[in-house]
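Notes, p. 3: input format for complexes.
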Amino acid sequence: MLDKLQKILQKKQCSLIELTVSPKNTPSRKLFEKNGFKNKSGVTGSITKIDELICAKDYYGPGRDFIIFHKKI
Ligand SMILES: CC(C)(COP(=O)(O)OP(=O)(O)OC[C@H]1O[C@@H](n2cnc3c(N)ncnc32)[C@H](O)[C@@H]1OP(=O)(O)O)[C@@H](O)C(=O)NCCC(=O)NCCS
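Output follows (73 residues plus coenzyme A):
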């Protein structure tokens, strides 16, 4: 599914996929890491660490820290 989505986005001239994952969602985080997504949580300027994972602090509101993943396509 990820490969299919990537191909569709490339056809539409998209060059970057951005998504967010809860630091508590280990299976999802691993899925994206295995598929070449990089943790870019620092792009927001405000980071925190949860279970040793760098997260964007309060990304979805107070206390809702999330990992921001990017993949260049
Ligand atoms: C995201 C999803 C598709 C991943 O499926 P999957 O790749 O088959 O997941 P697996 O059960 O094989 O687990 C992947 C990894 O996470 C690990 N893992 C799974 N549950 C875990 C837990 N509770 N704690 C720690 N690690 C865990 C597994 O050991 C595995 O590690 P490995 O790759 O190093 O062997 C599936 O979990 C899902 O449909 N989740 C619900 C929807 C969702 O979360 N979507 C994403 C929203 S951002």
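The longest helix spans residues 2-11.
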